Amino acid sequence: MWADKLWSAVLSRDEYAALDIVESALGSGLDAESVLLDVIGAAQHQVGIEWAADRISVADEHTATAINERAVAALPIPRPDGTRGRIMVACVDAEWHALPARILAETLKLRGWRVDYLGDQVPTGHLVAHVHRANPDLVCLSGSIATRLPMAHQAITACQAAGVPVMVGGAAFGHDGRYARLLRADTWASEARAAAGRLAEGLPGRPTTARLTVNDLPHLEDQEYTHVSRSSVQLLQHTFDGLEERFPAMKDYSQDQRDRTEEDLGQIIDFLTAALYVNEPDVLTEFLQWTAEILQARHVPARSLLPALDLLAEQLRDYPRALRILEAGKTALTANRPDDLLDAQ
Questions:
Q1: pLDDT in tens, the chain (345 residues)
Q2: Would the CA dihedral through 241, 242, 245, 247 be positive or negative?
Q3: Do 65 and 97 contact (CB within 8 A), yes or no?
Q4: What is residue 89's three-state secondary structure?
């Protein structure tokens, strides 16, 4: 009930109504953590659903998120009593989805932890400098998008080298935490309540030895990740130009559709790069499947994805891991056989 009321206020861009709803929920006897996670968190989840379905714009999404952030700030947070430790919460470098990390930080405060919240897009060097100054008992890193995994890996190893254990969370690390384990984070949690529950059982032990990121991922020695990462601009340009020839429907695209196509191609290359980093085709295939659904919701033909993957494969023909990942992407798309892809067979 309260979540529905808050969503209505957020959808109406009414910040004051949203704050009144939070106050009323608290006044009805709902505890602050439930308001945070089950009311505000639920409203923010709905923001993502509505954006993906193309029922709200990017500007609407930003406005809604800002209102939810204001609602979080309105919650009463008790002063820590000092019996628990200090936790640092931050988004990995280039990760700008800050609200999940903010919700985690406030949840931990409500549980009595002393929390340093650093916000979004924290460069690893600045993160580690703060670790040395504050000496927290744990660093919690948030990442929503798999393309942030290389930066997350650097941050994890740097914090551990400073003698502080790391918990990670967010969609970037896989629904089951598989990439958290691959990058050797000390622990992982799927969401804020699970993270708080895990920490109530005890903190991870402090690392005693440092390591290099390359030692975790020996497949990086083939330099495929490095090549694709450094060639991303050229790959995008050649793919976009070639797609105009192989997908004649682009001639009738509006400028907005062309811009979105270029953006989608750039993201495909970014996710291919991340897949090469962790050597997991699922990083790309899951993004492609999600993109196909988004394109259909926005009345942009999803069948353009297949020739785009072919164009990338032609440019990367000397890179076997990249070819394997791209082929897995094509297989995943055609296996689901959305109606829009049938014409491409």
A1: 899 999 999 999 999 999 999 999 999 999 999 999 999 999 999 999 998 888 999 999 999 999 999 999 999 998 887 778 999 999 999 999 999 999 999 999 999 999 999 999 999 999 999 999 999 999 999 999 999 999 999 999 999 999 999 999 999 999 999 999 999 999 999 999 999 999 999 999 999 887 878 789 999 999 999 999 999 999 999 999 999 888 888 888 888 888 888 999 999 999 999 999 999 999 999 999 999 988 887 777 788 899 999 999 999 999 999 999 999 999 999 886 555 554 544
A2: negative
A3: no
A4: strand
| Token pair for 276 | 């090469």
CB 166, CB 159: distance < 8 Å? yes
- Any idea what DSSP says for residue 138? E
CA distances 57 to 51, 62, 64, 98, 266, Å, are 6, 9, 10, 19, 20
As a residue count, the chain comes to: 345
- The 3-state secondary structure of 241-263, one letter per residue: HHHHHHCHHHHHCCHHHHHHHHH
Structure tokens at 313: 């494969």
Is pTM beyond 0.85? Reply is yes
Q: Which residues of 250-289 are buried (b: 16+ CB within 10 A; e: fewer)?
A: beebeeebeebbeebbbbbbbbbbbbbbbbbbbbbbbbbb
What the block records as the tokens of 159 is 């914090």
Using CB atoms within 10 Å of the CB of residue 153, give its burial: 0 to 12 exposed, 13 to 18 middle, 19+ buried.
buried
